[in-house]
Design a protein that fits this description.
This protein is an alpha/beta fold. 46% of the residues lie in helices and 11% in strands. It has an 8-stranded mixed sheet, sandwiched between helices. α8 links the parallel β5 and β6. The N terminus is likely disordered.
Length: 325
């Protein structure tokens, strides 16, 4: 009764009203892709992991802007379904599927070779593909699977496509990271499984830290080329990324789904970095899920750590002597 009495006090009503106005105002200030006039006619974009979730909605938005939109997916079947749906929704016939498994450096090289052979330009590269919840696994190439999928594969792909991006400048590279990067480690021994982290979460968090360090070092190396590179967090989003977790975790995630972002909402910060005029010319930065420029963790801002990770990644991908498709 005392709690009910306290909640009925006029101050509570005023505070509730102010909170409601604050949330309403924040929603009004949020960047809205539908209000962004950017047209991508004559431009070519690649979105990895685009057959579902955030990647699919990013590809859908870019296709609506008339871009030649390449969906880079692991599954032929699911990827083709996404292509047909996006073509039907946008009326854009230039929506294409190309197979890519970022956990395999061989697949990355094959994909990059096809792009360089078939495409005359590349204006936006969105490194979105990622997973979590897999058991510790070493691939046939000697890499830990989650680190290869989320970080090392995108690192190689980006480097192999850099010349095409430069020739198409101004161009953008967008790396999907996470607010969870702040709990990660950038120990390069994790890439080959020499250092084994304690949990799925620790592994995922660390790949997302590496995404930001990669972005920062890449931006430095691209100064003066007209190609920008930025990283972002999509926030807490309801997607299929939890499919590898136990049934109990999936049930819990289903229960909280009404309180988190949909995949379409989660795609907004990625789209913002890919097409908004506000980000034009900005590079080497990290954006929050509400499209605000924010500082990442202290480790993510360590240039020495970024350089060390880059050099080891070059060695593991065979790029030490320069990009070779």
């Amino acid at each position: 009764m005392e709690l009910l009495s306290a909640c009925s006090h006029p101050c509570w009503s005023l505070l509730s009203l102010l909170l409601g106005l604050l949330l309403w105002a924040r929603r009004r200030r949020a960047w809205d892709p539908h209000k962004c006039p950017t047209d991508l006619t004559g431009k070519t974009v690649i979105v990895t992991g685009a057959n579902s979730g955030i990647g699919k909605y990013v590809a859908l938005d870019l296709a609506r802007r008339n871009a030649r939109t390449i969906l880079a997916c692991r599954s032929q079947e699911r990827g083709q379904v996404a292509v047909e749906e996006i073509r039907a929704a946008t009326g854009n016939p230039a929506v294409l599927l190309r197979l890519l498994d970022t956990s395999s450096l061989a697949s990355v090289r094959t994909f990059a070779q096809a792009v360089l052979r078939e495409e005359k330009r590349l204006d936006v590269l969105v490194n979105n593909a990622g997973l979590t919840g897999l058991p510790f696994t070493i691939t046939p190439e000697g890499l830990e699977q989650t680190f290869a999928t989320n970080y090392l594969g995108p690192f190689l792909l980006t480097n192999l496509l850099l010349d095409l991006l430069k020739a198409s400048a101004p161009a953008r590279i967008v790396n999907v990271s996470s607010f969870r990067h702040s709990a990660g480690t950038a120990d390069s021994r994790c890439l080959t499984g020499q250092e084994r982290l304690s949990s799925f979460d620790a592994t995922y968090n660390s790949t997302k830290l590496m995404n930001i360090l990669f972005t920062a070092e890449l931006a430095q190396r691209l100064q003066g080329t007209g190609v920008t590179a930025n990283a972002l967090s999509p926030g807490v989003v309801s997607t299929g990324i939890m499919r590898h977790f136990s049934w109990a975790v999936r049930v819990l995630f289903t229960l909280i789904r009404p309180f988190i972002k949909s995949a379409e909402q989660g795609a907004v910060s990625t789209i913002y970095c890919a097409v908004s005029e506000e980000v034009s010319g900005i590079t080497g930065k990290y954006f929050s899920s509400d499209c605000r420029l924010v500082l990442p963790s202290r480790a993510a801002r360590d240039p020495g750590l970024a350089r060390k990770l880059w050099e080891e990644s070059e060695r593991l991908t065979g790029l030490t002597d320069g990009p070779r498709p």
